[in-house]
Amino acid sequence: MVFLMALAASLISIQATTIIAVEKPMLRPSDFAIIPWDDVPDDVDVLKDIRECGFNLAGFAHAEDLDTVSKAGLQCLVYGGVGDAEAQLDQAEIDRRVEAIVKRVGNHKAVFGYSLRDEPAGDVFPGLARWVAAFRKAAPNALAYINLLPNYAPTEWYGAPTYDDYIELFVKTVHPQFLSYDFYALMDDGTVRDGYYRNLQSMRKASLKHNLPFWNTVLSCAHFSYAEPTPAGFRFQAYTTMAYGGRGLSYFTYFGRTSGNYRLSPIDPFGHKTPTWDMLRDVNMQVQRLGPVYITLKSINVFHHPEAPAGCSGIATSKLLKSVTGGNLLVGEFEGPGGQPYVMVVNKDLHKSTPFGVTFKENGQIQKVNAYSGNSYDFRGEDCWLAPGQGALLCLKTNAK
Q1: Closest by alpha carbon to 72, among 95, 94, 98, 53?
Q2: Which end of the chain is flanked by fewer CB atoms within 10 Å, N or C?
Q3: pTM
């Protein structure tokens, strides 16, 4: 009986810890955005499920949906769609239209920003610049959302010689508040699409150069020749983005489509949760738990070891580590408050777990930031194992830091 009582007390303690972890405050989207790339339904229960899934933005909404979004404890991006015709309007007409949109929503607390355009070609940038300027004038505290092309888009769409030049042209022409792009990397033959890391590298480079955060739009459903969702795939997409210093994740799609071969979105076309929903929640909550530490860090380097993809760097560029052991790894290096060294180590293998180890150039005690509690403790024992796609955030505690 004593044993059973002790066991019951232990289980209660475990459950209580889980409940406390779930109820921790969400990251602010201005610090790290997590958003379903989808339309917002006018249904508070569906929106509460979005929040429970670990999102801090609801998606894209119309003005009449804002009260519902707010009741669910979320913010959203309001439609301010800029098609090719709208991009050709002069500044006076754009100002008039933007003022009308902003006046309609007022200072509603559900408004995080305005969604303007998805995957624009370079020749649309001058028009988008006029719209961004109008929104900045009418709603200076709101984000003007534009999602850029991936580097596998046709080069003639760039309006510039290279993909890096395309990003640079966007920044210099549009003067955005942040960068966002999409890259669907997980293929149904089990491979990662070529250019995924180079695209992250391009975004990181522009982000640091212009002091702009970047978001990565990734997959949360299968379609075309893209892979069906797996826990490893979700971990891989989130942790590789964070290793490169990303400050936002957007998932395409949350709600199921009824055409083509779309399948296994978190919510199916009948409105039911699929196993994908739980996979996505697990990863989103890991990001939420790591977030309070992660958002204090500055990206200072990224490398791959022992295999560096074309155009990417190896361990010879490392600023913080003398050595890394384990499988096929990605390492993001960061500087924390007071110059404290941090690394994000990611297992790039989508199918196999791996043990790993790191040796810092400085002496000190290695600590791990737990992805389920957010607490830091000495790196030890089974902490050396990474599941497929999993990342680990480590820091070095020295006498001076």
Answers
A1: 53
A2: N
A3: 0.94
